[in-house]
Amino acid sequence: MLSEFDLIKRYFQRDRAPGPNTFLGIGDDCALLSPTPGKVLAISSDMLVEDRHFFAGADPFTLGHKCLAVNLSDLAAMGARPLGFTLALSLPVAEPDWLDAFSRGLFALADAHGCELVGGDTTKGPLNVCITIFGELAPGQALRRDAARAGDDIWISGTLGDARLWLAARRSEVALDAADHAATGQRMHAPTPRVALGRLLAEGGLAHAALDISDGLVGDVKHILAASRVGAVLDVDALPAGPALARQPVGLRRRFAAAGGDDYELCFTAPVAQRDAIVAAGTACGTAVTRVGSITAEPGLCLVDADGAALDLQLAGWDHFSPG
Ligand code: ADP
Ligand code: MG
């Protein structure tokens, strides 16, 4: 039986020199981080609970990836550069194969972003993974939710709705072929945090407001509208549906792209004058960017179709998958 300390040492404490922003890593009462002088820390926590945010028996490698990905996505939405993270882990049993796969999934993504595990806590209990992530940015460059302005374009990174489509297939609401099933499962279980794009938008002063879409675009964009005291017109037919969702009937396509959930794409607003620079930023980091609407001085969210006609997606009362 692994002791708590053996477990930390074997799976989470790595035998290597700490990165440039870690003064002291795992092993003491606190980790010590060294942010770049003049920068502020960007800090966010996300907790994933079994049977609520992921299914019991979830693949541990992809779970390790996803727990960190959703936290990196928050840094991306602020435009911050990742520094490090802590991991609070509650486990029913210390199962070596599970821990090995979980930590490999976690570190593969951490290393891809130069984001170091600097500490945490480990306890026995129901499976629950809580990560707190630390990033840094110049204070004036943060992509805040209260910074949208009337006349801004609204943009979306990547594609929307394929994670929700996977869930619909799991619930036997739609049938997918094997290829679409695998591709949509990948979107649900292994989202790609848009860290490089968020940084280019913030550091280049290209965007005003941003957030990452976790509960569905239509619900999440309202956080920007409320904080910025503005409204928006969204062209639902301009939303970039995921490749599998694009093959579905138009009604499903519109609903899942507009309000699916688990997309972990960025929604951001930017001045019209930045259109070319934003397309260039998307190209530079290999992430598609799509213009889907505009911010209005008039409050409220208006959904329209490709012809500009108001669209009622009848989302009210519709049970969309909303983690948390
Ligand atoms: P304390 O007694 O102060 O709570 P612990 O004994 O829980 O400290 O942890 C010892 C060291 O291991 C600390 O540096 C802590 O940050 C680190 N640690 C504990 N659990 C984890 C984990 N799951 N991942 C990474 N580091 C961890
Ligand atoms: Mg402790």
UniProtKB/TrEMBL annotation:
Substrate binds at residues 53, 262, 318. SUPFAM superfamilies: PurM C-terminal domain-like, PurM N-terminal domain-like. Keywords: ATP-binding, Kinase, Magnesium, Metal-binding, Nucleotide-binding, Thiamine biosynthesis, Transferase. It is an enzyme of class 2 (transferase). GO terms for biological process: thiamine biosynthetic process; thiamine diphosphate biosynthetic process. Pathway: Cofactor biosynthesis; thiamine diphosphate biosynthesis; thiamine diphosphate from thiamine phosphate: step 1/1. Mg(2+) 5 binds at residue 215. One of its GO terms (molecular function) is ATP binding. Residues 150-300 form the PurM-like C-terminal domain. Its EC number is 2.7.4.16. Reaction mechanism of ThiL seems to utilize a direct, inline transfer of the gamma-phosphate of ATP to TMP rather than a phosphorylated enzyme intermediate. NCBIfam families: thiL. This is Thiamine-monophosphate kinase.
